[in-house]
Amino acid sequence: MVKKTVTYDRFYRIELTPEKEGWQVTIILEVSRGGKSEEATIAEEAVRSARIDGCTVDISPGKIVVTPTREVTLKIFHDIESNTRTMEIS
Hints:
Layout: E1 3-9, E2 13-19, E3 22-33, E4 36-47, E5 49-52, E6 55-60, E7 63-68, E8 73-79, E9 84-89
Parallel strand pairs: 5-9
Antiparallel strand pairs: 1-8, 2-3, 2-7, 3-4, 6-7, 8-9
């Protein structure tokens, strides 16, 4: 099995929206520019399953918003042979 792992530290928020065979994950950071804080989308990934620890999860129609309650790390594991991605926040 060939796997690739992408790790994101200190994200501000994640938004999950339903997709054909899983979830579209949008990773958002909070950045400071000119003394103002603003949000920046840094990546979008499609995952089939997820494990989430240390976060609040808000569910609304068509979207799930995940916000960390402590310092956490987001990892996305990509099994290249089966083309399956799995997300883990811990």
